Amino acid sequence: MSACVPTRAADSTRPKRNHPPHNRPPVPPRRFRIAGADLSASIAVFLIALPLSLGIALATGAPLQSGLVAAAVGGLVAGRLGGSPLQVSGPAAGLTVVTAELIHRYGWRTTCAITVLAGIAQLGLGCLRVARTALAVSPAIVHGMLAGIGVTIAVAQVHVVLGGTPQSSVLENFRALPAQLARVHPGALSMSLLTLALLFAWPRIPGRVGHVLRTVPAALVAVAGATATASFAGLVLPKVDLPSWSSHALAGLPDGPVLGIAAAVLTTTLVCSVQSLLGAVAVDKLVSGRPDLQARVGRSRLDRELLGQGAANAVSGALGGLPVAGVAVRSSANVQAGAVSRNSTMLHGVFVVIAALLMVPVLELIPLASLAALVMAVGIQMVSLHHIRTVTRHREVLVYAVTTLGVVALGVLEGVALGVAVAVVVAMHRLARTRITHEERGGVHHIHVCGQLTFLAVPRLSRTLHLVPRGASVVVELDGSFMDHAAYESLHDWQQAHFAQGGTVELTGRTGGRIAEPSDSSHCRCRPWTPWRNHHCEPSTNPQSVSPGGRSGESGESGESGETDGPNGSHAPGDSGGSGAPGETVGSSARSRTGDHRGRADHQLARGISAFQRNTAPLVRDELARLAREGQRPSQLFLTCADSRLVTSMITSSGPGDLFVVRNVGNLVPKPGKESGDDSVAAAIEYAVDVLHVRSITVCGHSGCGAMQALLNSEPGGAQTPLKRWLRHGVPSLERMAAKEQPWAKLAGRAPADAVEQLCLTNVVQQLEHLRAHDSVTRALREGTLELHGMYFHVGEAEAYLLVDRDGDELFDHVGAAEDLRRPA
């Protein structure tokens, strides 16, 4: 009966009472809190942003206040609305060339209007959710664009460093450089050299003192040192001039040809968007190195980031600021300084506003030559040797060089368009050009295919393959990353025919390693040394039988017989998963299934050994031969449960010779002693510590442990089976969990799911105590040559936890991609 049926009839004579509805308890107002890490990170970013913002404004020829306006708006608007919480936006060096050209051609007020229009365009692109499309641009084009901008910045600022004035284009700056070298201003050059010396030497101060000093940004130290030196020496140099904010120029109506304004808006939108989105992706990579921060911040939302950048550009342009984009230097400094939320980015914007209003007398002491040297260094660093090596390794140096030269000689938009055109031509050339060679060495025919194997190369491939005599041994080396269906069919058909004629064919990749042949689909294609996924490569030859309950008798991946799994992967009794034949007794059905299961298991074992001999043995034979000569030298003793779902080499990324493994039911370590000890485990511990000299011992428990479930459900008395006698070594874990004076072991981020999981955690802690009681372990711990670690592996989540001590609590914390066993339990 449903629980909602009333238990008594309604009484019409009973007076009705109208109760007022229950109001929700008032929610207390949320208090705005700023973490200490965000505050310290915001100060570090502010100290970097202040001189760079002034330097970039100087390099573009814009009013110097515009750099401060863009820095403040980037921190407050983009920081609040953007989709990358830890990315810091502001005036970027990548926009210097574009902005300088716009100011030279249209004037400052029109440039501000172009910035506003570019921001509106970014808002539209963000609403269309096309942010990830910008990431489709070849990295060689992006790096080439930034390198070209860096060259343009550096060449222009050389004139200011030498005490002169830069020209309007790169080529003119190159032509004017000899004349500028003939009339060098000694004061400007000396302050520039001092700035560069401090900028590059400050991060390289060694020792503990250097570690403390490096907390102050090098850019701030360089500019402050040059400013102090120029002031004390009384040098007469051009310095920062910040007019009154009352005379600050705001955006005006666009004044110029429509096509020119449209091209300018497109260029600004393109550069701002690509630089900001690539910066957000780079910040995600930095955050991934801090698992605690990654769980709190999450990945960047690129469409929201594009909306935030568009809003910041619209506001910055309207207030008379430079274009805004994500800045790699400030963003990396923000993450490395320990920021944990977007509050650090916004606070840095607040500090910039305070500096712009209250620190004008101090800022006007900065020599322009010092700012020019700082920006010139940034421009030089934009030509990254790492990027050049990367594009060279990927054979895209031509695209990189053409884009760089195009940006330097023609401009940003023209250079990027030229780079895109060259990238398309190179891609088509690689796709269409395939070189096929044939030679005979030692009676073996070698066919080398260099390039992508497409339908365009099929005639030449077929012609070359048919030059091979019948019955010959052939090695086909495919030195490419793509093969289309036409080429595959041609190679497959020839291979089948060559096999039928008594020949042999071996397909290899560019490294010479054997690859899977496409000819025999019945062979196992599970690649060696790749993530395993419960593969059953042999196709089922029996028709599926469906039980009355609707479950299939053959389950494919979940098992061969369709039986459900019990604890620790064992088959639950009484669940056949299929119906027997008509007239067949249950006993005969069970016997037939048992014999069939055994036959298939034997076949699966043989097939697995065959796959090892065929695929994996050639890869590990040299390493195993070395281990056979030198003996085993494992670094860890790994003591874990015998559960079949726990693959020690997989969850520890270890290989032959790395781990000395002891497995038993329940990952138990019996206490030493005649009455309760177990010689097999104690002998393994003694051998690992005293003979193999392992450096650490790890006790690893896991979720859903059948031994812990049996411990919880065990009742006193009854027959003492071998399993019950063994599980008595886990009774102390049960008593530890029941004791009220001892705190329970905890999992980071959540409570244990049930009593079984709590006992699994407690058992790891208890077995570590048993481990410390062994003489060899006690001695090694006292000498400081051994560490003990507790580990918990959640099978269903494929998540590993390490035991750490936090304020006296036994906590199993997450293990991230960059973590290791740093702290013993």
TrEMBL record:
<feature type="region of interest" description="Disordered">
    <location>
        <begin position="531"/>
        <end position="601"/>
    </location>
</feature>
<dbReference type="InterPro" id="IPR036874">
    <property type="entry name" value="Carbonic_anhydrase_sf"/>
</dbReference>
<keyword id="KW-0472">Membrane</keyword>
<feature type="transmembrane region" description="Helical">
    <location>
        <begin position="368"/>
        <end position="385"/>
    </location>
</feature>
<feature type="transmembrane region" description="Helical">
    <location>
        <begin position="140"/>
        <end position="162"/>
    </location>
</feature>
<feature type="region of interest" description="Disordered">
    <location>
        <begin position="1"/>
        <end position="30"/>
    </location>
</feature>
<feature type="transmembrane region" description="Helical">
    <location>
        <begin position="345"/>
        <end position="362"/>
    </location>
</feature>
<feature type="transmembrane region" description="Helical">
    <location>
        <begin position="39"/>
        <end position="59"/>
    </location>
</feature>
<dbReference type="Pfam" id="PF00916">
    <property type="entry name" value="Sulfate_transp"/>
</dbReference>
<comment type="function">
    <text>Catalyzes the reversible hydration of carbon dioxide to form bicarbonate.</text>
</comment>
<dbReference type="Pfam" id="PF00484">
    <property type="entry name" value="Pro_CA"/>
</dbReference>
<feature type="transmembrane region" description="Helical">
    <location>
        <begin position="257"/>
        <end position="283"/>
    </location>
</feature>
<comment type="similarity">
    <text>Belongs to the beta-class carbonic anhydrase family.</text>
</comment>
<feature type="transmembrane region" description="Helical">
    <location>
        <begin position="106"/>
        <end position="128"/>
    </location>
</feature>
<feature type="transmembrane region" description="Helical">
    <location>
        <begin position="182"/>
        <end position="203"/>
    </location>
</feature>
<feature type="domain" description="SLC26A/SulP transporter">
    <location>
        <begin position="37"/>
        <end position="402"/>
    </location>
</feature>
<dbReference type="InterPro" id="IPR001902">
    <property type="entry name" value="SLC26A/SulP_fam"/>
</dbReference>
<dbReference type="InterPro" id="IPR011547">
    <property type="entry name" value="SLC26A/SulP_dom"/>
</dbReference>
<keyword id="KW-1133">Transmembrane helix</keyword>
<feature type="transmembrane region" description="Helical">
    <location>
        <begin position="397"/>
        <end position="428"/>
    </location>
</feature>
<keyword id="KW-0812">Transmembrane</keyword>
<protein>
    <submittedName>
        <fullName>Bifunctional SulP family inorganic anion transporter/carbonic anhydrase</fullName>
    </submittedName>
</protein>
<feature type="transmembrane region" description="Helical">
    <location>
        <begin position="215"/>
        <end position="237"/>
    </location>
</feature>
<dbReference type="InterPro" id="IPR001765">
    <property type="entry name" value="Carbonic_anhydrase"/>
</dbReference>
